[in-house]
Each structure stands twice: as structure tokens, then as C-alpha cells.
Amino acid sequence: MKKTVYLILFLSFGLWAQQEKKQVNILLESWHQAAAEANFENYFNLMTKDAVFIGTDASENWQLEDFKSFSKPYFDKDKAWTFHPLERNIYFSKNKKTAWFDELLETDLGICRGSGVLTLTKEGWKIQHYVLSIAIPNENVSKIKQLNDPHDSALLEILK
């Protein structure tokens, strides 16, 4: 009897996770599409009111309203940015109210890595936290470190 109950629970969670992964994928695809189409309202409506966007520059830790202000000129030019997912992994919390993901992206910046946290709201899944990183091959790290040294040194002086 116990094995049957566990099997039913396992299968029902599996079906739930499969359906929710589809919903999360739809949300992320819609979010990236809204940016590519410069649809400001659609893009930001897919984020929570307390969302955070971490950009590729060390200074880019945007709270939602600041990120909107920063992004608006890009959206006003009828094309913000275009991210094409190459692969994506999605995970869920035990209480099924939080999801997190990582994705490899083809972008205007080259291959990037996106990762984030989603929260299940009354309106469905919403992005609460997103991090965009430029993927740097390990063999190029020393060159990038040299290139970034003046910028990093100046920023370290401010942050210390």
C-alpha cells in the first residue's frame, strides 16, 4: 500500500513538474521575445514588482524601477536586445512556489549565461531575479583580466 501511495505521489509530482516546466519555458521565451520586439510593457509585466536584474557590468545590480529607467531608451529604439536560448535547465522548490533556472544564450554579446529565480504569483510565474553573464572560455580569462584591470581597480577603490 505504501509503495502505491509513493508511486502515485512521484508520478503526480512528475506530471506537475513537466507541466510547470512548460509554463516556465513559455514565460522565459515570452520575456526574451518582448525584449527582441521592444515591448516594454510585456517585458516588465513578466517580472515581479521587487525584481532584480544583474547585468554583465559589475556595477549593474538593478532594482526593478532603476532597470526600467535604464532600459527604456533601448526599448524606445524598437529593439532592446535579442537572446536566443541554446539550452535551459529548470528546477522547483519542494513547496512548488519557487523555480530557478539557468540558460545558455546566443546574444549580440556572444554566448552568455542567464540564470534566475521565478516566483509563483496569483498571475502565474514571474521573474524575480535574473543574472546575465558573458561566457568567457577559461583559456581567455587572463586576457580578459588584463583588459578589465583598469576598470576593476577603479571600481574596487569605490567599493572598499
What does this entry look like structurally?
The protein has 160 residues and is α+β, with helices and mostly antiparallel strands. It has a single domain, classed as Roll (Nuclear Transport Factor 2, Chain: A), CATH 3.10.450.50. The chain has helices at 2-36, 40-45, 64-76, 141-159; strands spanning 47-54, 61-63, 84-92, 98-107, 110-121, 124-134. It has a 6-stranded mixed beta sheet with strand order 2-1-6-5-4-3. A hairpin with a 6-residue loop joins strand 1 (47-54) and strand 2. The mean pLDDT is 92.
Predict the CATH topology: Nuclear Transport Factor 2, Chain: A
Let me know the number of strands.
6
Order of helices and strands: HHEEHEEEEH
User: What is the makeup of the main sheet?
Assistant: 6 strands, mixed
Q: What is the share of helical residues? A: 40-55%
Question: Mind telling me which CATH architecture this is?
Answer: Roll
Major sheet: arrangement of strands = 2-1-6-5-4-3
